[in-house]
């Protein structure tokens, strides 16, 4: 009897280990395929756009033989498949060429400006989650009421209004008219050459170093673009929270809890929201990834020195190495967060592991 139970347990453990190995292999294949597709798309976009990288380097007035020599050095005279193979090798080694605009390696520029984008998107996600989740819960609990309609209208406006228009209106109102926030940029010129960042995340660095005047100045610069991104994040998070909560409030365990006499607030916040929190983790992670890739217009409007502003400036100067390198960096982060959120969802919800 003991031997039989041991054999059954061993087989169960083997099946479980086999399923884990298969899941890891599927994840690796999906990640590799996605990243390869991302590199392929960016490569062909770089070859389709009507911008000659050689002319961008030497200028329009350079002699023809100089332009041709630069094209040979860049490998642009080779067949397309050979160019793609060279592009793949360079990309996997972290070499995206040199920026024409800054004359620095593209990866060096990305490492310098990306923390600003991460910081801005993090502020937007925090604002969106802290406000969007309670609004979504309220809309689900008060389904069909005026409160529900207001929350849905707020979400609809967040989805519909162009971000550049809303950003300009916010600048005119809160900066030009009311003076509540600082002018566009990341830090005041007074502190720009006296403040020494450690990690590249200026706000955290200022708080860590207890430079409260710098931290307040950084907050006044980041609150408007971060709040704008937070509003768009709020629209998505509140809508999804409402949907998840409506599904949970219709479950049988909620009916049983009410029959036992539990208070409505306890049912909502400790039972329904707790179960809805599992998919909400994925929603918030995807919202953060969306803000990372969607911050280009926001950074341009507010002169925020992040990756989006870097890509825009490079595109205006025909710096395709910087444009493609920045695009790949955002794409890699977006895909990584997407894959990570899927793994996290399967980890937190055991019901999805067998799918």
Automatic annotation (TrEMBL):
GO cellular component: plasma membrane
GO molecular function, one term: dipeptide transmembrane transporter activity
Membrane topology recorded in Swiss-Prot or TrEMBL: Multi-pass membrane protein
A Pfam family assignment: BPD_transp_1_N
Coiled coil region boundaries: none
Transmembrane spans: 23-45, 120-141, 153-176, 218-237, 276-302, 322-345
Record localization: Cell membrane
Stored CDD domains: TM_PBP2 (cd06261)
Domain ABC transmembrane type-1: 114-345
Gene3D superfamilies, alphabetized: MetI-like
Record keywords, A-Z: Cell membrane, Membrane, Transmembrane, Transmembrane helix, Transport
Origin: domain of life: Bacteria
The family this protein is said to belong to: Belongs to the binding-protein-dependent transport system permease family.
PANTHER family in the record: D,D-DIPEPTIDE TRANSPORT SYSTEM PERMEASE PROTEIN DDPB-RELATED, DIPEPTIDE TRANSPORT SYSTEM PERMEASE PROTEIN DPPB-RELATED
The name this protein goes by in its record: Peptide/nickel transport system permease protein
């Amino acid at each position: 009897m003991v031997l039989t139970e041991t054999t059954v347990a061993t087989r169960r453990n083997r099946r479980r280990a086999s399923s884990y190995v298969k899941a890891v292999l599927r994840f690796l294949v999906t990640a590799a395929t996605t990243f390869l597709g991302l590199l392929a798309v960016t490569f062909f976009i770089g070859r389709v756009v009507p911008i000659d990288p050689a002319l961008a380097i030497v200028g329009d007035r350079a002699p023809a033989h100089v332009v041709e020599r630069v094209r040979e050095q860049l490998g642009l005279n080779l067949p397309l498949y050979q160019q793609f193979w060279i592009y793949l090798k360079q990309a996997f080694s972290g070499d995206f060429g040199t920026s024409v605009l800054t004359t620095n390696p593209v990866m060096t520029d990305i490492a310098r400006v990306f923390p600003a984008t991460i910081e801005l998107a993090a502020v937007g996600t925090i604002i969106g989650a802290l406000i969007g989740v309670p609004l979504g819960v309220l809309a689900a609990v008060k389904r069909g009421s005026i409160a529900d309609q207001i929350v849905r209208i707020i979400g609809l406006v967040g989805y519909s209004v162009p971000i550049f228009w809303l950003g300009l209106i916010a600048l005119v109102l809160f900066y030009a008219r009311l003076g509540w926030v600082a002018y566009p940029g990341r830090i005041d010129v007074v502190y720009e050459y006296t403040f020494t960042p450690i990690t590249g995340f200026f706000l955290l660095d200022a708080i860590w170093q207890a430079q409260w005047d710098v931290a307040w100045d950084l907050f006044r610069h980041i609150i408007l673009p971060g709040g704008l991104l937070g509003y768009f994040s709020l629209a998505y998070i509140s809508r999804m929270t409402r949907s998840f909560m409506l599904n949970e409030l219709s479950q049988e365990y909620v009916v049983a809890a009410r029959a036992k006499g539990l208070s409505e607030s306890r049912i909502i916040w400790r039972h329904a929201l707790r179960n809805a929190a599992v998919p909400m983790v994925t929603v918030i992670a995807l919202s953060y990834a969306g803000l990372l890739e969607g911050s280009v217009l926001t950074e341009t409007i507010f002169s925020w020195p992040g990756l989006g502003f870097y890509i825009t400036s490079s595109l205006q100067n025909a710096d395709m190495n910087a444009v493609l390198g920045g695009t790949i960096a955002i794409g890699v982060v977006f895909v990584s967060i997407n894959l990570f959120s899927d793994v996290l969802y399967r980890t937190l919800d055991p019901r999805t592991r067998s799918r």
